[in-house]
Design a protein that fits this description.
Blueprint: H1 2-22, H2 62-66, H3 95-99, E1 107-110, E2 116-121, H4 124-137, E3 141-145, E4 151-156, E5 159-168, E6 171-177, H5 186-198
Antiparallel strand pairs: 1-2, 2-6, 3-4, 4-5, 5-6
Length: about 200
């Protein structure tokens, strides 16, 4: 009885791991040996309804088949996906880098109301320093500058506008407002932000 139980256990274990470990074919590559079947031929003079293949087989170029990747095991008798290849993770900007003062390049975007914005990722304090330096290089007349907030009032064509930096996490956006906190004229804002974008020192 004990010998019979041991034999059954050994056969069960072999059936579970034998196919994968011994490389026994399981029919997963039989599709490569399929042959083309001619359409069904009816006796001459038969009245039949026209038959349209439900799943017509595509015509494959033999050259494409010869150069197709081979998803099979080493013995070539079982389907097997290739092992994943190792890769070097690309360097990405981390939160620590942003906190240390690293900033990205400005991006010209618009909000839902098509108001021009300048989106810049990075440390807001560093971005604001770059903004003031860029305004200085553009020779715009600075009328007033907030000490605690990141906004500055400048004069363009004898009219005052407020350039303000808004931050959400590490994402920052520059926008141009009128002195009553409404968005400035889209053309004026677009021209000013384009000048900042083109002369950004980073």
């Amino acid at each position: 009885m004990q010998i019979r139980f041991s034999l059954v256990t050994a056969l069960s274990a072999l059936s579970l791991v034998g196919c994968s470990s011994l490389g026994i074919s399981n029919g997963s590559l039989d599709y490569k040996k399929t042959a083309t079947i001619e359409p069904l031929q009816y006796p001459e003079g038969s009245m039949v309804r026209p038959a349209t293949p439900l799943y017509p087989a595509p015509i494959v170029d033999p050259l494409a088949t010869a150069n197709a990747p081979k998803y099979e095991n080493e013995r070539g008798n079982r389907f097997a996906l290739p092992r994943p290849t190792t890769f070097t993770q690309a360097q990405t900007t981390t939160q620590d880098d942003l906190n240390e003062g690293s900033i990205g390049r400005p991006q010209q975007i618009t909000d839902g109301n098509q108001n021009p914005l300048l989106k810049i990722d990075g440390n807001s304090a560093t971005i604001w320093q770059y903004t003031l330096a860029t305004l200085s290089s553009l020779n715009h007349s600075i009328v007033a500058q907030s000490k605690n907030a990141t906004d500055v009032t400048i004069k363009i064509d004898q009219k005052s506008y407020v350039l303000r930096l808004s931050s959400v996490g590490s994402s920052n956006s520059l926008a141009v407002f009128n002195t009553d906190n409404t968005f400035a004229d889209k053309q004026v804002a677009a021209e000013l932000l384009a000048q900042i974008y083109q002369n950004w020192p980073a």
